[in-house]
Amino acid sequence: MPKVALFVTCVADQVFPDTAAATVRVLEAAGVEVVFLTAQTCCGQPALTAGEPAAAIRLANHHLDVFGAFEAGAIDAIVAPSGSCTAMVCHHYPALLTERRPEAEALAARTFELTQYLVDVLGIVDIGARLDTTVTVHDACHGLRNLGLGKETRRLVEGAGATLVEMTEPDTCCGFGGVFSFGFPEVSTRLADSKLGHAAGTSARYLVSGDLACLMHLDGRRRKVGPQTVPQPIHIADLLASGLPARR
Amino acid sequence: MSDTVPRHTGGHAITTPGDDFHERTASAVADPILQRALHNLDRRLRTANESAAAHPEWKDRAAAIRRETLLDLDGWLDRLEHSLVARGVHVHRASTPADARRTIVELAQARGARTVVKSKSMATEEIDLGNALEDAGLTSVETDLGEYIVQLAGERPSHMITPAIHKTLPQIRDVLAREAGTDLAVDREALTAWARDRLRGEFLRADIGITGVNFAAADTGTLVLVTNEGNGRFCTTLPRVHVAVMPVEKVIPRLADVGILLPLLTTHATGQALSNYVTMISGPRRAGETDGPDELHVVFLDNRRRTLLGTRYEEMLACIRCGACLNVCPVYRNVSGHAYDSVYSGPMGKVLTPLLSGGTEGADLPYGSTLCHACSDACPVKIPLGDMILALRADVPDPQSGARRRRRIFWAVWARAWSTPRGYKLTTALARMSHGRVPGLRAWTSTRELPRPARESFRDRWAKEHV
Amino acid sequence: MIDALVAGLRANSCSVWGPMSDEVARGKVVERVSAHLLVACNDDVPIPGIVDALRERGVDVLTPGDPAWTERLADAEVGITGSRLAVAEPSTIALAAAPGAPRATSLVPPVHICVVSVDALVPTLADAMMGIAAGEMPSALTWIGGPSRTGDLEMITTLGVHGPRAVEIVLLG
Residues 6 or more apart from C47 whose CB is under 8 A from it? Predict the structure, then answer.
């Protein structure tokens, strides 16, 4: 049985614990044993994007201390329900942690985003979830461009029996961008409106993505604007977990 | 829907230095005519994307050629100068925009020149050559149709390939009709025909033609110019003197390299397999030839470029100015070029503007990015634009040093708290108790709902379930 | 390769005739321009006797050796040039400046007719560049893929901005 450490991410931990729990359920349904390290905090990405790499490096060192502490073979992988936080570890850590580069590269090599781990590492597209619904996918940028993801979410959605309806420009940014959403709220909001408009054009029931930050932004805009004719933004873990048989 | 988005004003303490770029993006998003004009860009995006995807292997080869050049930029420049001089070309080296302007103005004055025709060139925009020539008493006429419109309107190009993309056809008619002194129809053919006639006269009487350079081959001493309208050809055919302004990174080792670089440039710029006109110039008019300039001058422009060599920003000098990063950028596509208030806009402008100005201009540009990396993906020579934009947030000195200090303190305190599980639990518990009502969220909440922290964190839930 | 050239040029708003023999080409070109009052014709057009044939038909032909070339070119309605190099993909035709082959013939008149032999065709631009870089470069080598065009007015193509509105390619062979 593969064993993974959950890299929960601060957003899922503090704001969307249900999604974190759904991630565990999905992994377990795929036959994976999940462990959780309570010493983990945040990968440091907010500070990096704010232009404060020194603060980000401090968090990155902590993250490396926590997840690098496993003995060789003790776990198979580290899995996060976020393309963006995974990209922080895989794409940015080796460049930031210059004094611990071999450790950082080893950590990056075994850190995966949820759908990447299920589909690309385990080769599973059907975890036993059954969904009788229609879904459109938003390709979150860091998963798409830093990790090369795209097909994974779609295969899982279809593997669960849902109907996939592609929107216009599924790979265009939703406008969140971390600090950008505070510093440039007008453009950020405009981009959310474009994304929601494209999603609405599909008439799908759900707008699924692999990053909670995008979803928080899109759902925040959707709730502010109403009436709610656009698909419900939902994380891939929540969607898949909703189709799993009830737990004994 | 967002035409009604209330405009947020005031900078944000922990995110953005200054508020100028932000203010301009907000105005652009709220400008319905600009938004209508910008929709036209989407057409280009589609065609350029499709043709660019046809030859993915070209990117690797082009990126390798550009990096080979940067490994020995000074060497290639020396070889280029040698080849050009051997062909009877005059080479001038300008380390600053002022040097370049002075060289060209003096050259024009020494020849008693009165009228200069210019072909669209970002380099001449960078050194603000048109104004320098006008100040020296010369008439300087932009001859690319879009750039001519922008010049008549007293504006700056808003896109490096399509300078007047921010204008609708009725607006363009107004600009041209004002110059014509008569009414003109809102009709593409009629407006183009009027501009053709007017500019034909300028070409015939011009004393000097000024162009940029797309590539300059060191081995043969050949300048390569890409145009579609033919104005670049006029500038290098009729006037007695041709002056080419060449930023130093335009040098390529071998003329044969353009076999890869040219199609890559044009597919990414306009979606064309090749532009309509490619002119390869190897020296002035030769004995017995009927036309072409008697004198050819090339100005090598440095303007801090060589200081980037050996830094993490060196690869920015691989840029071939195709505009692909502008066309895919979600921010550019919604605000257009003028919002950047700099010669270079879009993702490459966010990187180049602060670098070429030594941080005195465009310090806030790198913050106006969602870091979506669409630019890095689109770049035909694989410049990691997204990573550079991110790195510049730390590396560009903040014009307001007090704000930078406050930001550093904020994030240092945050990092100190969150680098221990105890500090993390304590601060998140405080946030939970305040129901997420922490200061600085108005910029978000005026247009979007913000979820509150959950009543119970995942870690607490996990601890309960796994005693 | 010829098909690719023809398809590419046509897609880029050129007219293409041939491939055809010199004889047929001469007749076609004379027919094509006979209604025009003034035609500029470079010395390197690879159809033997083309200038005489045009004059016999009553067309006023301006050649680069004419002392009034520069002044009269502005009035020419058609410019005829030769070419010794064409690329199939991307489809484009090279004009080398030389004595008797001015740059402006393909630029100033509103119609440009270019005569090129299919023997001058190479598969790709990279092939062409390898060949060119090995030899001596002309003062100006101009690659032409179609009529002058712009997308500056709301990104919709308009032809004939500064250069010719029409480009017609005559293939010999």
Answer: C22, C25, C26, C29, C115, C170, C172
